[in-house]
C-alpha cells in the first residue's frame, strides 16, 4: 500500500507582531494560519503505531510558539519560518503554509501569503 497522508491544520488563529508601520510594531495583530503537510503513512496505517505517524500536535505547538513570540516585518518571513517548521521532519515530502492577515486592507476580509516546499 502507498498511502500519502495529507495533514491539514485549518484556521489556526494566533496573534503576533507583523508589519512595518509604527502601530504594527507596537501592537499584536491577528493572523490565521493554514498548514498542509504530506508524508508517507504506510507504516502508520498498517501498524497503528503512534511513532510511525507524523505528530501534528508537536508541529502546531512549535508554530504557536514561533508566531506568538515573534516579531516580523513581512508576511513572507513569517510564512517562511512556519514552512521551515512544517518540513523539518525527515518524512515530510511536501508542505504548504498560508497566513492571512485579517483587516490588513480597508475593504478586504484579509490579505494572505502562501508558500510551499517540496523535497527534491
Automatic annotation (TrEMBL):
Task: Please name the SMART domains in this protein's record.
Answer: FolB (SM00905)
Q: Which Gene3D superfamilies match?
A: 3.30.1130.10
Q: Answer whether the UniProt record assigns the keyword Metal-binding to this protein.
A: no
* The protein's Enzyme Commission number: 5.1.99.7
Taking every annotated instance into account, which residue ranges of this chain make up the domain Dihydroneopterin aldolase/epimerase?
A: 7-117
The protein's name is: Dihydroneopterin triphosphate 2'-epimerase
Kindly state which keywords UniProt assigns to this record, in alphabetical order.
Isomerase
**Pfam families the record matches:** FolB
Does Ubl conjugation show up as a keyword for this record?
no
UniProt xrefs under InterPro entries: Dihydroneopterin_aldolase, FolB_dom, GTP-CH-I_C/QueF
* Catalysed reaction, written as an equation: 7,8-dihydroneopterin 3'-triphosphate = 7,8-dihydromonapterin 3'-triphosphate
For this chain, the family text in UniProt reads: Belongs to the DHNA family.
Amino acid at each position: 500500500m502507498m498511502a500519502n497522508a495529507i495533514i491539514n491544520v485549518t484556521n489556526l488563529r494566533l496573534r503576533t507582531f507583523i508589519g512595518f508601520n509604527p502601530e504594527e510594531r507596537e501592537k499584536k495583530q491577528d493572523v490565521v494560519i493554514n498548514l498542509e503537510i504530506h508524508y508517507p503513512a504506510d507504516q502508520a496505517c498498517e501498524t497503528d503505531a503512534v511513532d510511525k505517524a507524523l505528530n501534528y500536535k508537536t508541529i502546531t505547538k512549535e508554530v504557536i510558539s514561533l508566531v506568538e513570540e515573534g516579531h516580523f516585518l513581512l508576511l513572507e518571513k513569517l510564512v517562511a519560518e512556519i514552512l521551515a517548521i512544517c518540513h523539518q521532519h525527515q518524512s515530510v515530502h511536501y508542505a504548504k503554509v498560508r497566513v492571512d492577515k485579517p483587516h490588513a486592507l480597508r475593504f478586504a476580509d484579509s490579505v494572505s501569503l502562501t508558500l510551499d516546499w517540496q523535497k527534491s
